[in-house]
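Attaching the record inline, Q. Sequence:
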Amino acid sequence: MARLNLIEETRYEKLPVRVYPDQHIASKQVAGRIAQLIHKKQTQGQPAVLGLL
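Structure, as predicted:
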């Protein structure tokens, strides 16, 4: 099988993906991860989101 050129080989990003049974479970999981991030940053005295102002 011939190799694809570099552009075709790297065209798609390889990101970790999780598939959930439905959107309600997925949204709860995402919200939980965001809440953990906010709590972690607050305990470190850092902002969880950097503003562009």
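The two ends are 52 Å apart (CA to CA). The mean pLDDT is 83.

More tomorrow.
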